[in-house]
Predict the 3D structure of the following.
Amino acid sequence: MTTSASSETATATRELDGIRSPADIKALSEQDLPQLAEEVREELIKVLSQTGGHLGPNLGVVELTIALHRVFETPKDRFVFDVSHQGYVHKMFTGRLDRIGTMRQYQGLNGFLLRTESAHDCYGAGHAGTAISAGLGMAVGRDLRGGNENVVVVAGDAAFTCGISYEALNNTKSQTRRFIVVLNDNEWSIAKNVGAIASYLNNIVANPTYAGLHDKARRFVEAIAGKSAVEFAHKVEEGVKNLLVPSVIFEELGMRYYGPIDGHDIPLLIKTFEFLKTQDEPVLLHILTKKGKGYEPAIAKPDKFHGLGKYKIESGETAPAPTPTYSELMGKTLAKFADSNQKIVAITAAMPSGTGLGFFQAQHPTRYFDVGIAEEHAALFACGLATQGLKPFLTIYSTFMQRAYDMIIHDIALQNLNVALCMDRAGLSGDDGPTHHGLFDIGYLRHIPNFVHMQPKDEDEFIDMLWTIANYSSGPIAIRYPRGAGTGAVPKASPKLLEIGKAEVVQHGRDVAIFGLGNMFEVAEEAARKLEEKGISVALINPRWIKPIDTGTLEFFARGVEVVCTIEDHVLHNGFGCAVMEHLHSQMINTPVVRIGWPDQFVEHGTIPILRKKHGITADALVEKVLPLLKKKDGAKTRPSAA
């Protein structure tokens, strides 16, 4: 392990401690900047070992962020970071160093940029591919109001696997003259980048002749001068480049391309940015960086250290999960099913480890597809596979599945294709915050015709549901499941097929019927115990099916109890509870329905227990809402407890 720290540095006054604003970076001598970079890395490694976070990406952009703040002036100048998970160093330089230890903690700094957190955060994000479009909009807005600030977009090479990035580049040349895009090339998104774009960038980097072409062209211009000479030199340069390397796609799209250059060379970065900000045309600077630079465990395992929880600084080790995560079960189970079912294929969007599909890839490499950060393409690709009689499992986080929404309706559902949507991280995603909470997928799927949608209460039922999906052939089907480990339920030796639309009645009762969806079933069980302690008879139902809901079971209990209660790890609007209310209303069953779920707002970041307590997603909150609706409530011991 290397953290680049010496004992002398640890006891001396740090340059970093004097950074309260970008002006303090400008005040340092250029000779002091490498020391600042070293101290920033030490701080990141130390702090994130306690909070978790995106360590690798931030270690890779330390010098870049120093150079940006040395040359430009935020908040007047605008830095737009794609995804913005690499914005920790920017936060340290913009008045938040004293709060860096609160990163991703409740009421602390967010793990991504937020416009509400600082004036220096001009644009918030958490998904890839948004920065160039947003930055272009800022540049055009500046031009329309006669401003003179610089707009600098920092996008990783993975962002260039997103179609949105090219949609933006296609419009850049015709819409603004002053615009800087930095392509931060470390060959990684979360996993190793894949596809033709990654190969294309590698070809540029690997070509020894190309790097000096711009300098030669510039010297030629300086020698003969004049506007016509500049235009002629550019044509000569283009002709030479096309002979040596594939046509530079960025210049074909109207961006003057510079690079690749060393993204860890601070003086070179500073000189380059000083030059680029004088250019009266859109420019793209290609820099080469190392993800995890300065910390050997992060260099050795860049996918693990992209984003992780607490770890030991000395070794980089993280605490193992007490039980297998849903993601791990997903990958291993699907790989096992595929052993005997040749039609099963698996697709992910740059997240083989996060979705657990790395296990599938190892066993079935020819039936595993990582399409890069391109969810729209992934969904359409799955459609094409389905038309050929295959069973595609499209495995993407719930929050990222939103990006393929048009394809889910127009291509998967409308054509009733046999595609499985496997939505990892459904529900609250805790410390990642509002950009990553999977709180909307019930709402965005349940009204679409032809879909079946489900959620398991534990790991055993999860395996049964995956088996049911693998054997389902009547159209699109979806499953949502939470981040992390489950209840510890041990799966059966052999999975069983579940009857579509049939709930599991765990216990009967006469006063209250609680429908606890998915991972909220545990909370429903706790609430049932608390109510039973008050002499209230509780029916407990595991719904399993979001669509179609088990209308027979719902109606049976709604006609026989005083209160129906639903609890879900989803927003209340258009959620599972809404489906229950809609059906009861359609049947003119007037039993009161208490719904427990997330409010109509973007939920902040923090630990799941803290956020559930704050927003009333607890057993106590359920009991508190149910009791006033019962004829006999707290203290009524005359009724027998549920059988």
Remarks:
- Residues 101 and 382 are 42 Å apart (CA to CA).
